[in-house]
Automatic annotation (TrEMBL):
Residues 12-67 form the HTH lysR-type domain. GO terms for molecular function: DNA binding; DNA-binding transcription factor activity. InterPro entries: LysR_HTH_N (IPR000847), LysR_subst-bd (IPR005119), WH-like_DNA-bd_sf (IPR036388), WH_DNA-bd_sf (IPR036390). GO terms for cellular component: protein-DNA complex. Keywords: DNA-binding, Transcription, Transcription regulation. Belongs to the LysR transcriptional regulatory family. Pfam families: HTH_1, LysR_substrate. Gene3D superfamilies: Periplasmic binding protein-like II, Winged helix-like DNA-binding domain superfamily/Winged helix DNA-binding domain. The keyword DNA-binding applies. This is DNA-binding transcriptional LysR family regulator.
Length: 315
């Protein structure tokens, strides 16, 4: 309910809110229609119906921007839709057969630690059925908050011991499980390969590979170096296979900011430590709300990942 601006969303149709959020996030009626698989006219009609219901304009049309009331509604609508998704997932999980686990992770969140924990879980619960989903950070955070996945692992770069800046609604409740030194991946023979350490502020104009699903280094370098210039980008890689990204680096197509462990044992590549600013690659765990006895696999795995071994017999 938005009481201080005179409008109420208590009885608004959630489908109208979903359409409104799609338009607000895409900045386009046509793109929102594609996302929702509606016609553009249907999207326009739903936005008009929502505005009529609330008695105030929410969007300007050319260009599509949020009005002050629309900005306020967007914050409420996103949380409402997350809560609805969480309720739906909670009901589904409550009636699902026990002994199942869905693990979601960003590509660089996978590690030997995770593999060993899963192996221990399989040994402790031989009949366990589990799924592993790899996706971008936004999806993993949202799916953990809504209960679509039982456990989420997300990664990113931060100052040592600092938490990751996660998108809403998943910032609260994240638990750090691993930190790894950050390095700049370069090919053997590259002019930077012999350096003992690198200052990221000196590399804002370097030729970085743009890999948003694996290692969005360009954005990271701009933020941590606090440089006022845009980072030059090399080729754009839109996949999630780390091997492909490393192949692009080895072939001389650009640099990549990566955790040191990714380069362990790789030939043709060198990981040069980041000296300034101090920076680590961090992995954090997100738990779906535990609501039933069937959550034991997630609880067991979470305990193992956070170095609090659980007693399998207790589950």
């Amino acid at each position: 309910m938005i009481s201080d601006c005179g409008i109420s969303i208590r009885d608004v149709d959630p489908n109208l809110l979903r359409t409104f959020v799609a338009v607000a996030e895409t900045g386009s009626f046509s793109l929102a229609a594609q996302r929702l698989r509606y016609t553009q006219s249907a999207v326009s009609q739903q936005i008009a119906a929502l505005e009529a219901d609330l008695g105030t304009p929410l969007l300007t049309r050319r260009p599509v921007t949020l009005t002050p009331a629309g900005e306020r509604l967007l914050r409420h609508a996103q949380l409402i839709l997350v809560r609805l998704e969480a309720a739906r997932a909670d009901v589904i999980r409550a009636v699902a057969p026990p002994g199942r686990l869905t693990l979601g992770l960003t590509p660089l969140a996978w590690s030997g630690q995770v593999a060993a924990a899963l192996a221990g879980l399989r040994a402790a619960m031989p009949r366990l059925r589990f799924r592993v989903i790899t996706a971008g950070k936004d999806r993993i955070v949202t799916d953990a908050a809504t209960g679509k996945i039982d456990l989420g692992l997300v990664d990113g770069f931060a100052a040592p011991s600092d938490p990751l800046r996660l998108p809403e609604p998943g910032g609260a409740g994240a638990t750090g499980i691993a930190e790894d030194p950050a390095v700049v991946a370069v090919p053997d023979g590259h002019p930077l390969a012999g350096r003992a350490a690198l200052d990221l502020a000196d590399l804002t104009d370097a030729y970085w590979i743009d890999a948003p699903e694996v290692a969005p280094a360009g954005v990271t370098v701009s933020e941590v170096a606090r440089a006022g210039t845009a980072v030059s980008k090399g080729p754009r890689y839109e996949g999630a296979d780390v091997t492909v990204l490393l192949g692009l680096v080895a072939a001389g197509h650009g640099l990549a900011l990566l955790p040191a462990s990714v380069l362990a044992g790789r030939t043709g590549l060198r990981g040069v430590p980041v000296g300034t600013p101090r920076l680590v690659h961090r992995v954090e765990m997100l738990r779906a709300p535990a609501t039933r006895t069937g959550d034991e696999p997630a609880a067991w795995l979470a305990a193992r990942l956070t170095d609090r071994p659980a007693n399998p017999a207790g589950f």
